[in-house]
Amino acid sequence: MDYHRGRPLCMDDYRSFLGAVRVPAPGRDVVVSHGRHNAYDVPRHVVVLCGGRIFRMEVLDREGRPIPAPSLGAAFQGIRDVVEPYAKVWIVPASKAKTGEKAEFTLRD
Fold first, then answer.
1. How many domains does the chain have?
2. What is the mean pLDDT of residues 29-47?
3. Collapsed DSSP state (helix, strand, coil) of residue 33
4. In terms of C-beta density within 10 A (0-12 exposed, 13-18 middle, 19 or more buried), how is residue 46 classed?
5. How many Å apart are CA 64 and CA 35, to the nearest integer?
6. Whole-angstrom Cα distance, residue 106 to residue 85?
7. CA 39 distance to own-chain centroid
8. What is the DSSP code (8-state) at residue 9?
9. How does pLDDT run across 4-25, given as a tens digit for each residue?
10. Beta carbons within 10 angstroms of residue 94's beta carbon
11. Which of 11, 57, 64, 98 suits 44 as a labelling partner, its CA being 20 to 30 A distant?
C-alpha cells in the first residue's frame, strides 16, 4: 500500500500524482492534470528520450487504437537516424503510468 502524508492512497489519488504538473503561482502553486475527469482528451503519445534529445511519438490513433508495431518500429528508426548509432532509447509514458519505471531499448541493426 502506498501512503502520502501518512494516509493511504486510493487509486483515484494517483490522478494527482501521475500525468500532473505543479505550476508555480503567487501565494500557492496549482496542480494541473490534463487527463483528469475527461476534461481533456487522453494523451495519445509517449515521450522518447534518445541521445540527449526529446521526441514526441504517437502510440494511439485518433480513435484510441494502438499504432501497429511496424509503424512504431519505423518511428523508432526515424529517431535512430537522427541520433548517434546504438544509442539507448528511453520511453516515458505520457499518462496513466502504472509504475514509475521506464522501458529501455537498445536499437541495433
1. 2
2. 68
3. strand
4. buried
5. 14
6. 10
7. 18
8. P
9. 778 887 766 666 666 677 788 8
10. 19
11. 11
The secondary structure of residue 65, as a DSSP letter, is: P
Query: 509514458: which residue's cell?
Result: 93
Decide if pLDDT at 75 tops 80. yes
Asked if 107 and 86 touch (Cβ cutoff 8 Å), the reply is yes
Same domain, 33 and 49: no
Locus of grid cell 501521475 = 18
Mean pLDDT of the chain: 74
The percentage of the chain sitting over the pLDDT mark of 70, rounded to a whole number, equals 59
Amino acid at 9: L
Distance (Å, whole) CA 42 – CA 65: 12
Q: Domain check: are 51 and 101 in the same one? A: yes
Partners of 35 in beta bridges:
none
Other Cβ atoms closer than 10 A to 51: 15
